[in-house]
TrEMBL record:
Residues 1-62 form the Inner membrane protein YgaP-like transmembrane domain. The chain crosses the membrane at residues 7-26, 32-54. Keywords: Membrane, Transmembrane, Transmembrane helix. It comes from the Bacteria. This is DUF2892 domain-containing protein. The keyword Membrane applies. The lineage of its organism: Bacteria, Bacillati, Bacillota, Clostridia, Eubacteriales. Pfam families: YgaP-like_TM.
Length: 64
């Protein structure tokens, strides 16, 4: 069940990559905060946002 539209996918994927880059460029224990970037990347790839499923929001067009 897809609930993420095309523009929303891009708006999730790019910040996810930026967050994930903290893992490689950050220093100390703070760099592991970049692992949070995996969540928006996966929701952008698979077109499913778990929080949107719970709230019932959809940003994709429904095909009839």
């Amino acid at each position: 069940m897809k609930n993420v539209g095309h523009i929303n996918r891009i708006m999730r994927f790019i910040p996810g990559l930026i967050l994930l880059s903290i893992l490689f460029w950050g220093e100390g224990n703070l760099k592991y905060l970049g692992l949070i970037g995996i969540i928006p990347i996966l929701s952008g790839i698979f077109d499913v946002c778990p929080l949107c499923l719970i709230s019932g929001n959809k940003s994709c067009k429904i095909k009839k």
